[in-house]
Amino acid sequence: MPKMKTRRAAAKRFKPVGNGKFKRKRANLRHILEKKPTDAKKRAGKTDYVHASDTGRVKRMLPYAAKN
Fold first, then answer.
1. Which domain CATH number covers 20?
2. Which of 39, 48, 49, 55 is deepest in the core (most CB within 10 A)?
3. Residues 6+ apart with CB under 8 A from 46
4. Is residue 40 included in any domain, yes or no?
5. What is the reported pLDDT for 68?
6. Please, which domain of life does this record's source organism belong to (predicted)?
7. Element (H, E) at 59
């Protein structure tokens, strides 16, 4: 069987972790930061996990990322 191709855009956005989940970066930290609350900026700076309902989609885009 031929190799499956990885979606490169997804590979740049998501990284697999050991528990079968995928890490992702949060949004809203690029511009117009003066008017955003400090706690919102702190929260946006942290990494988050892909939601359970989207994990299947991410796994399909990254066939060799996680074998769980």
1. 4.10.410.60
2. 55
3. 26
4. yes
5. 53
6. Bacteria
7. helix 52-61
Q: Report the domain count for the chain.
A: 1
pTM of this prediction?
0.84
Q: How large is the average pLDDT for residues 36-63?
A: 96
Tell me whether residue 55 is in a domain. Answer: yes
Amino acid at 68: N
Query: What span, in angstroms and rounded, lies between the C-alpha atoms of 52 and 50?
Result: 6
Residue 10 φ/ψ, nearest 5 degrees = -70, -35
Q: Find the domain containing 18 and state its range.
A: 8-61
Task: Provide the pLDDT for residue 8.
Answer: 97
In a domain, 1, yes or no: no
